[in-house]
Write a structure and sequence with these properties.
This protein is of the alpha/beta class. The protein contains two helices and eight strands; from the N terminus they run E-E-H-E-E-E-E-H-E-E. The radius of gyration is 14 Å and the shape is globular.
Length: 126
Amino acid sequence: MRLDRQHGRPSQPIAMDDRIPTHLWVGAHLRQLSIDAVPAAVLRKGERTGGLVVLKLNMLESGCRVLTQTRDLDGNLAWLPAMGGEAVSESAADDYIERAVKRDPDLWVLEVEDRSGHNPFEGKIL
């Protein structure tokens, strides 16, 4: 269970459900991150109801990691690390994201700043 960083009370993760449109899922998570005082932004809006999410974890001077939203074999939300899961320069991360958006224009792109590179969203990293 996560703790709300500002108030120290339990904070429930928001589960992605097949019935929840992407724009609502993104909006709910951004509100939670704002409450938790975690800097986050939508860099690109994709398809409102079914677009997948690409997450740019900006670790500031330590570089960036990029994760792509997917489902595991059981249908649970999961994340695929891009570029071997390693931290890369921000320009390399942006180039990767630009290529991904060209392949799939329905993608949403979110950026979260976290020096440790922690993924604030539910779902395991595959």
